[in-house]
Design a protein that fits this description.
Layout lengths: L5 E6 L2 E7 L4 E7 L6 E2 L11 E12 L5 E4 L5 E5 L3 E5 L3 E6 L4 E7 L2 E6 L2 E17 L8 E4 L3 H11 L21 E4 L16 E5 L3 H14 L2 E4 L3 E5 L4 E5 L2 H22 L10 H9 L4 H6 L2 H9 L3 H7 L6 E4 L11 H6 L3 E4 L11 H15 L17 H6 L2 H7 L8 E2 L9 E4 L3 E2 L3 E3 L16 E7 L5 H10 L8 E7 L3 H9 L2 E7 L2 E2 L2 E4 L2 E3 L9 E7 L4 H10 L3 E5 L5 H17 L3 H11 L6 E5 L14 E7 L7 E8 L10 E2 L10 E2 L2 E2 L3 E4 H7 L6 E4 L2 E4 L8
Parallel strand pairs: 13-14, 15-16, 19-20, 19-22, 21-23, 22-24, 24-33, 25-26, 25-27, 27-31, 31-32, 34-40
Antiparallel strand pairs: 1-2, 2-3, 3-5, 4-5, 5-12, 6-7, 6-9, 8-11, 9-10, 10-12, 11-12, 15-17, 17-18, 28-29, 29-30, 32-33, 34-35, 35-38, 35-39, 36-37, 40-41
Helix pairs in contact: 1-2, 2-3, 4-7, 9-11, 12-15, 15-16
Length: about 725
């Protein structure tokens, strides 16, 4: 199986196709004439690349705006191209770093002219030139495995070794590609840490009581800081630079301190790194320069311990001025044991916060009324004569009554009835996404399943995204027709879509076994399994399931989705209760659009939950970071539109909100392609809003496809003009 990027000559249009088989990414470097790529050594490039080739061209074009850093052959920064502009470069050698869906570098000689517009980029030479092209995947996987006995102190040593994955301890570690995936952890009889896992000596220590809850909570901070985790009577963060900070007296308090310190250090690293490889004009730096007198040049070269001391001395007011919601918080069931240890490297790799709730926390205990309601509901769902709600699972027409009762188990759980039918409400948080590790299933966010992580990813040698839609009920053809239109080719995304109707159990078994990026099932699913034309298929009987993401848009599909993940799928979107057809169609269409645009399944479901009538009855099981489509702008962006407070009815206020992905993770930056926005922003939540005319907005998104929030509703750029 191919695991590295590959190059192919393309004739329509002419150019060089760059393909990442693991992430199913395709990127085209257009040329003015056909090319014949020849292999060259990857070490010709100052930055790491996995494969490289040489082509000849007079002109190179990119079909959409891709930020470019122009560098010397040694990697020194010369210029950034991320706004509509024309730049000329004289004779000499140049290394062009393309921030594209596959990391791509062009090495060539000048003179050359770069003409960048919102619609694309053209790089013109004064004659035919040899151009060397290097590429690497954004894919990151564990490099080794640590064996850990069921002992919190041994787990501390494993967590300390996570930092061996860091490629640097400078502020550049805030870039996702310079962190690296922590080693896997498996439970065993004794502690075994491979010799090659050498954690950096940063002079930073985190001491916590020898209990799993504390160790899990500090793991993301320890990894990012390169800190040694050691046993202690109380939780402390210490450094050889004189830092000695108490983190709290219980697990919840330690979690709050870890969140504050990690966000502070991380955001300040993002600002300080502008002194290094990528001197972006960063919004957060402008803010801090008005709030503090930090010497970023000195901080960039300081030791990790000294830099930590300086960061902790920054006022809370200054940090609040650049603070933003974190991308994910992962909750672990109260009073945890060793069961979560094997998921820990994957949670830490995404730099998720970890919150451990004490099992006795009152927030997690039902009131007397809730308990009575929960007991009654549990008796209802266990009843042998359980009434089937009209709607998707019965084929009857929608009624107002159905809308009130169809998803009752999930609705009661969301109202604070813990444990009904095995469901668990999660506490409120300002994180963009939530995940859960525990026996029960959350009623929002993602239930993490170990089987979803660490598998060899399915590959696509041609970079084509395989999508399969199966509809097993004629009454649900509306969703089949709608999603067929949504799952279409884009100019930067090649899709192979297959649609099947009324399949048998054997046909469905075979379809689930085939490799695909997305498997969308429309039909009846109940306790026994998938209803097919000749019977019922129970996912428990499958030998394999090879889809990245599965959407099971049928009633009570939770258990079947869990089985599919345990059999090979990476993530499954499942329902917790009965569904009515109109609401399920809305969810199916909305989720298909968000995933096809480029959102990860976890973030997509957050938006589905907020902006569809039935979204609260669905959750994700498996890995929330999985996505099947590249996003043209690299980072999926949601735009909020409202009437401008000044300028009349023809003016609008637009605010972009970015959502990180695993290939463009936390620490990436974004410059929204909107008029008057010239700054870069750390890609966490909202960027600064701007005023824009309706005509300018239409022109900006004329050839683009993006989601908007208008009047509280989720709409798309090809729809918003109808609402003017």
């Amino acid at each position: 199986m191919a695991t590295q990027p590959k190059f192919t000559a393309s004739s329509d249009p002419t150019g060089l196709g760059v393909i990442d088989p693991i992430e199913t990414r395709h990127f085209t470097v257009g040329t003015d004439s056909p090319v014949d790529p020849s292999e060259v050594e990857p070490d010709r490039f100052a930055f790491p690349v996995a494969t490289a080739c040489r082509i000849r061209a007079t002109r190179i074009s990119l079909s959409y705006m891709v930020p470019i850093d122009v560098r010397t052959p040694e990697g020194d920064h010369l210029a950034s191209i991320d706004l509509p502009t024309t730049r000329e470069f004289s004779g000499g050698e140049y290394l062009l770093e393309l921030h594209s869906p596959i990391k791509t570098y062009l090495r060539t000689t000048g003179p050359l002219t770069i003409d960048a517009t919102d619609d694309g980029i053209e790089i013109a030479f004064d004659g035919e030139r040899a151009v060397e092209v290097g590429a690497r995947s954004y894919h990151s996987a564990p490099a080794a495995t640590i064996t850990v006995p069921d002992d919190p102190v041994a787990t501390m040593e494993a967590v300390t070794a996570f930092a061996s994955a860091l490629k640097t301890t400078s502020p550049e570690r805030s870039w996702p590609t310079l962190r690296g995936h922590p080693p896997e952890v498996e439970r065993g009889d004794e502690l075994v840490i491979p010799d090659e896992l050498n954690a950096p000596d940063t002079g930073i220590t985190i001491a916590v009581p020898p209990e799993y809850g504390y160790v899990y909570t500090v793991a993301p901070l320890a990894y990012y800081l390169g800190a040694e985790v050691v046993p202690g009577e109380t939780a402390h963060l210490a450094a050889e630079s004189g830092v000695d900070r108490r983190l709290g007296d219980d697990v919840a308090a330690v979690g709050e301190s870890v969140e504050a310190v990690l966000k502070r250090v991380f955001l300040l690293d993002c600002v300080t790194r502008t002194e290094g490889l990528y001197p972006d004009d960063l919004h957060e730096r402008d803010v801090l320069e008005t709030e503090t007198d930090l010497d970023f040049e000195s901080l960039y070269g300081a030791s990790p311990a000294d830099r930590l001391a300086a960061y902790l001395a920054v006022s809370a007011e200054a940090i609040a001025a650049i603070d933003s919601p974190w991308h994910r918080v992962t909750h672990i069931e109260g009073d945890p044991g060793p069961e979560a240890v094997e998921l820990l490297p994957y949670v830490v790799n995404d730099l998720s916060l970890i919150a451990v709730k004490d099992a006795s926390d009152e927030e997690w205990s039902p009131t007397e009324t809730q308990q009575q309601t929960g007991d009654a509901l549990e008796e209802f769902v266990r009843s042998p004569g359980l009434r089937r709600s009209p709607g998707r699972n019965s084929g009857l027409e929608d009624t107002d009554c159905e809308r009130e009762t169809a998803d009752e188990p999930a609705r009661h759980a969301a109202r604070g009835v813990p444990g009904v039918g095995g469901y668990m409400p999660l506490p409120e948080t300002d994180a963009l996404e939530q995940a859960w590790i525990g026996d029960r299933t959350p009623v929002q966010g993602t239930k993490l399943l170990r089987d979803a992580f660490g598998r060899d990813a399915a590959s696509s040698d041609d970079g084509i995204v395989e999508i399969r839609v199966v509809c097993n009920d004629d009454a649900m053809r509306e969703e089949l027709d709608a999603t067929t239109e949504i799952y279409r080719d884009r100019d930067d995304l090649r899709v192979n879509l297959s649609c099947e109707f009324d399949v048998t159990t054997d046909e469905l078994r075979a379809l689930l076994a085939e490799e695909s990026a997305m498997f969308h099932f429309i039909g009846h699913i109940d306790g026994p399994g998938f209803e097919c034309s000749d019977g019922v298929l129970d996912a428990e009987t499958l030998d394999e399931a090879n889809a990245k993401i599965v959407l099971l848009n049928g009633c009570r599909s939770h258990d079947q989705g869990v089985e599919l993940v345990e059999t090979g799928a990476r993530a499954a979107v499942v329902s917790l209760g009965d569904l009515w057809n109109e609401g399920a169609v809305e969810v199916g269409e909305t989720l298909a659009r968000l995933l096809h645009y480029g959102f990860s399944v976890g973030h997509a479901m957050r938006l589905v939950r907020e902006h569809t009538s039935l979204g609260r009855d669905y959750v994700v099981v498996g890995d929330p970071g999985i996505a099947f489509a590249q996003c043209k702008s690299n980072l999926p962006t949601l735009f909020s539109l409202s009437q401008s407070s000044a300028g009349g009815s023809n003016r609008l206020s637009i605010t972009p909100s970015s959502y990180v992905k695993r290939d463009f993770g936390v620490g990436s930056t974004i410059r929204p392609h909107l008029p008057s926005i010239e700054k870069h922003y750390v890609a966490l939540g909202e960027s600064e809003g701007v005023e824009i005319s309706r005509a300018s907005l239409t022109e900006t998104f004329e050839n683009d496809y993006a989601p908007f929030i208008m009047d509280g509703e989720l709409v798309w750029s090809d729809e918003w003009t109808e609402r003017r």
